[in-house]
Amino acid sequence: MIATNYAQLFRFALPEVIVVVAALIALASDLLFLRTSSPRLRFTIAAIIGSLGCAGAILRLLQSPEQANLLNGMLLANPLTHLVQVALLALTIFTLLISVGSTFTEHIGEFVLLILIATAGMMFLVASQNLLVIFISLELLSLSLYILTAFDKSRAQSSEAALKYFLFGGMSAAFLLFGFSLLYGFSNSISLPAIADAVRAAYASNPHLNPLLAIAIVTTAIGFGFKVAAFPFHFWAPDVYQGAPAPSAAFIASASKVASFFIFFQVIVIGFAGAEGSARWLHFVPGSVAVLAIVAVFSMMLGNLVAIVQSHVRRLLAYSAIAHAGYMLLALVSHTQQSLAALLYYVVTYALATLGAFGVVAIVEQRTGGDRLSDFDGLSRRSPILSACMFVFLLSLAGIPPLAGFFGKFYLFVSVLDSGPGLLWLIVLAIAMSAVSLYYYLQVLKRIYVANPAAEVANGSSQAATIRTPFLSQAGIILLAAGIVILGCAPHLLLGCIHAAIRASGI
Amino acid sequence: MLAWTIYISFLGALLLLLLPKGSAALARILALLTAIVTFAITLVSFLQHRTGEMLTVTDVSWVPSLGIRYHLAADGISLVLLLLTGIIAVTGILFSWNIEHRAKEFFAFYLLLIGAVYGVFLSYDLFLLFVFYEIVIIPKYFLIAIWGSTRREYGAMKLVLYSFVGSAMVLIGLIAAYVVAGAKSMALGDLAGYPFPAHFQMWAFPLVFVGFAILAGLWPFHTWAPTGHVAAPTAASMLLAGVVMKLGAYGCLRVAMTLFPLGLAPWGFHVLGLGSWRDVFALLAVIGIVYGALVALVQKDFKFVIGYSSVSHMGFILLGLMTLNQIGLSGAVVQMFSHGILAGLLFAVVGRMVYDRTHTRDLATLGPMNLNKAIPFAAITFVVAGMASMGLPGFSGFVAELMIVIGVWHAFPILTVFVGLGLVAGVAYIWRAMQKAFFAEAGHEAIPPHPPLPPISIPERLGAVILISASVAVGLYPQLLLNIIIPALNSPLFAGLHQGGWR
What we know:
The complex is a heterodimer.
Chain A: H1 6-12, H2 14-33, H3 39-63, E1 68-70, E2 75-77, H4 79-98, H5 108-126, H6 131-149, H7 156-187, H8 192-205, H9 211-227, H10 236-243, H11 246-253, H12 255-271, E3 278-280, E4 283-285, H13 288-307, H14 313-334, H15 337-368, H16 379-382, H17 384-398, H18 404-418, H19 424-449, H20 455-459, H21 462-465, H22 471-489, H23 492-505
Antiparallel strand pairs in A: 1-2, 3-4
Helix pairs in contact in A: 2-3, 2-5, 3-4, 3-5, 4-5, 4-11, 4-12, 4-15, 4-22, 4-23, 5-6, 5-12, 6-7, 7-8, 7-9, 7-10, 9-12, 9-13, 10-11, 10-14, 11-15, 12-14, 12-15, 13-14, 13-19, 14-15, 14-18, 14-19, 15-17, 15-18, 15-22, 15-23, 17-19, 17-22, 18-22
Chain B: H1 3-18, H2 24-48, E1 55-63, E2 68-74, H3 76-95, H4 103-122, H5 126-135, H6 137-147, H7 152-180, H8 188-193, H9 198-215, H10 224-231, H11 234-259, E3 266-271, E4 274-276, H12 277-297, H13 302-323, H14 326-358, H15 363-366, H16 371-374, H17 376-390, H18 396-411, H19 413-437, H20 458-476, H21 479-489, H22 495-501
Antiparallel strand pairs in B: 1-2, 3-4
Helix pairs in contact in B: 1-2, 1-4, 2-3, 2-4, 3-4, 3-11, 3-14, 3-20, 4-5, 4-6, 4-11, 5-7, 6-7, 7-9, 7-10, 9-11, 10-11, 10-13, 11-13, 11-14, 12-13, 12-19, 13-14, 13-18, 13-19, 14-17, 14-18, 14-20, 14-21, 17-19, 17-20, 18-19, 18-20
């Protein structure tokens, strides 16, 4: 029995504690003092409390540079986990900001509480190398997200999406747990490095892939593939993106993606080290990398090709998310230190762009009543600033320089190719597919800039035609757009931090 | 100082967006001033340039961990094209003086495009070059889709997808080259000096070359060009044909041929009589010349004539590049300049002077309007531009095409016959268009257009004069360009090409 130092544990879990306390304060103040106030005011105050909590946690993370590995990998603290946690907290703050103008619910304190609880779950998720802690924090995250999806009680779509999300999620959690249990049986340990040792030992005695391990790889891939919405576990994504309230969808599409991808990389690269197999052209060897390469290829193709025919912006973003998951899985396929840096850069900038795009969609929906492409007609005449931001978000997703999305793609592809020449075929496919993606992003931008505003709006006075947005939301969206432009023009700002953190953490 | 061409253009675009609504006149003037300043900068640098040197403009570290630098530099070839960009930028604004609909956005997109084009020609780091190359794509789309005419959304999307597919091919090649060379530097000089294995160059060269050549209108990937040009508003067609297509040709020479010179070497076997990528692309270029000219000969739409003539003339450039001898290569660069000026002028006549007044481009309808009486200035300009474009001595087109033909004679004697055929067809389609549009048969009872066409405005006259004088200057004294092009072609940057097959 290891003597547990709870004071130490508390010290390293302090950021998470701050977030949870902020969540409780937000809930209590909303329920106790603000019941009778207007929803706008309640949302503003709850969002400010939540953001302050996140900001406090960020400060705490930045101030504690020390490294720790508590209880054999149950809770890690190193520059890399801190970096990812800071990114998650920043994304949460932006999510809270863009949710300020929402009108879909009366239960504002509960909404903010759930977002912050989910954030705490993600923070534990990325800071662990222990299968059980990973699973529990993943469930904490998922359960919060199911409720967030169902939060719009006035729309049947929202509940339907949540039910689908919940059913698929429950099934994939079962697969994941099954995979974890096999890993435990295989290695007699729930710590990732110990599992890796067992995998290596198994390979040393028998050069072929152990069948037990093969099943574990596939079921783990199913569990995480569901979280990152990769083919063929993507079925929930379009419905959830469309049905969930916009801030929830934004949160699911951004922060939860960052956390899931990071831990997916950790599990595959640390836990299955030695069982990679190979995805090289004509040299396919079964293993985790081979499975992921197949998933990546189909995600890229399905996501991009199906997105072309979408007529709703949210569904379009959902399919584009599947495609982007495909690109990001390439980093797992190449599994080098450099590709981890590329993955982090990509997923963070992708999350910023998606979050911003959902922010704009949320505002447009409130004014025009829907997210059909035609609801965006002539947006540039009605709100030039929002349109310019949407322009930045979508082109960043499409990978047009000098926006962050382009550098993310470039660096990702370089890192994949650098890991071995046999992966060129994946790069060729990815670049070809990203050429396809420009088509559907431009379809949205065409509506915004080229099409004329709908007739009834054009007939109204110009004052009525312009779209007003709450100050905090607009500020959040503009900050996101500025962040994408700055990170695109000066990628080193983020990349330098990532490289330094990876070096310092020695992964 | 040259770097300011980029910054000033982008700044101008930003300022335009901040202007209050409905200030079209102010937007025009601001855009014109921006363009004139950038043009002045390029002109001064052009005149000050000492031959043969690679003039570094800016060189700072950009992404240190990847060895990517913000490195701008110019040599003789890029200066020629920068000057062309400056001229087209100014005249393009002069020819879009009549834009009233969302004017400030129009000029903002226009300046964004111009700034990015300057950026491509100035980039020495290939990552940077690619960044600017892709920035060009987006404003093109909106310029055509918002302010265009015939089938504008189709034309714009087609153009964008072709460009983007081309740049995707380039990106694959660049990433592969970067990684093979050790992923330490993206500078053109470093990569050009790296001895890539021959088998790598054999697939990377055609990939990157075709990627750029799509934008240069290489047959059979040219189909975006006529539809895009026709759909675009006048200034955008001028930019597209005048400058943007040159980006492709410039990329072919600067990136594809410089990085992978061995890709031009013989395969060692023959397929259908073709023994190397060089033969393949030379043949495609000649097909482009003849095909473009013949298709232009049968068009009913005035602007399509010019659109296909661009395909034909761009064929000359690509053919000149494939000759791999000094006269052919320098002829190709002169042709880039010459075609930029002349295509700009032709599109200005057709799009601005004729179409914006008559609202038709149908040659059969234009004939009875008796345009040589109604707008004589347009008729004269078109005659001059047409003569220059068909290669009359004294104009830039003659010098360029003569040099290319001599180069081809040395490199591919048989193809010269077909080039001659293309030249003859070139005379024919210009003649036919001129005759049908401006000097229709006297047998018709001349119907004066009703209401009378507005006269040619001052900005239009000014623009036409600038473009014609540029063409004449180069035609009468080609050394103006050749003095700086030839030393640039002999610089160490092209050493690989010299060793690979320079005759």
